[in-house]
Amino acid sequence: MVRLRYVALLALAACQFDTNTQGELTDDGGQSLFDAAVGSIDAGEFDPDASLVDAVPVLNCEDWNPQPTILDPCKDIEVSEVDDSLLLDETGGVYLYDTDLGTLTSPAMADVPHTSVILGNGGLAPRVVVARTIDIEVMVTLRATGARPLILVSWENFSVSGVIDVGSSATEIGAGANDTDCDSAEPGEDDNDGGGGGGGGGFGGDGGDGADARDGSDAAGGNGGQAVTAPSFRGGCAGGDGGDGESDIGGIGGNSGGAVYLLARETLTISGSVTSGGQGGTGSQGDRSGGAGGGSGGMIGMEAANITLVSGAIIAANGGGGGGGTNQATADPGQAGQASAVAALGGAGEASPAGDGGNGSAGASSVGLIGTTSNRGGGGGGGGAGVIFEVSNSFQAAGAVISPALTP
User: Fold this and answer.
1) Same structural domain, 302 and 225
2) pTM of the model
3) How confident is the model at residue 51 (pLDDT cuts 50, 70, 90)?
4) What is the largest CA-CA distance in the chain?
5) Residues 51 and 105 in one domain
6) Going by DSSP bridges, is the β-strand pair 163-165/267-270 parallel, antiparallel, or unpaired?
7) Same domain? 240 vs 273
8) Are 257 and 294 within 8 A, CB to CB?
9) Which residues have C-beta within 8 Å of that of residue 334, sequence separation ≥ 6?
């Protein structure tokens, strides 16, 4: 672990060492700066009462107002192990954080030293990264993956001018996504004449139901996952798989958004974006199979004495769109949850009469939409909203985008 570093600089301008019998340290004019007999520094050149260390605020685990709700600074973090700062500033680059390994990699693939601990003893307990200050600069992205949720703690100020992303995509699963306590979205039923669509993942809002195939006469679509009441800090819930058709498998349910918690003792200022979108459900892949449900949005927590979301900042934990069903070939996947208040679109079904996927949740609507019923493969349901909340003495967010709305 990286230890707190204090740096003291003592400048003695224009000094030279003189090898006379007195053993004196003199300046260029021969004036003594150190009297070997009494062992004191000449007061004309140096104030013996002055501090040799620049004033660095002392870290006190009890000096938090309000006291953090997610952890105890006095029990969960050793003050002596708090790093000076965590500055991510390689413009245009993506820093990768693995919450399982506790590794932070720069855009140049170099290891970035930092301090981290596991909060608690559970198998999927959060990874806590702690520093004196945290600064994610403009045009910089911090991308976090792994089974553990991520908590970022700044002992002083926390600034996000760039992007923090714990969402899921077709190639990466966000940190803490697909929580094991989810009310699982149901898969669509199988049928040779057409598989049903998978239900969308539910978390902060219900996931959309998957669509029936053949107007409900044969394979039913899966039910969407239900919203969770007052969830603990955790990621969202995955979508259900599409039902199999005549000879091919249905789409694969989208992964949910992950979980990230931003905690600062003093100020948290966000002018960039923090996102935890669900992955879109994949489209079905062959004859008469159902599209998959989209993953729900994840969780974003913000806590500080003073929180400011600058106009134009984006905090988004939206659901992914459902995947389309097929007739004979391949259907489109749903979009991933968007970094905006605009809904992720469901994937188009492959030619009539295959069904389209339902849109994901966004903005004022916390629920995913139902897929389109068809005479072949049904469309997958859209993913429900994630959860966004804040804890502070002062919260300002005029002009910022928050999707879904803050949890009361």
Assistant:
1) yes
2) 0.85
3) very low
4) 108
5) no
6) unpaired
7) yes
8) no
9) 254, 280, 281, 291, 294, 320, 321, 322, 323, 324, 344, 345, 346, 347, 357, 359, 360, 380, 382
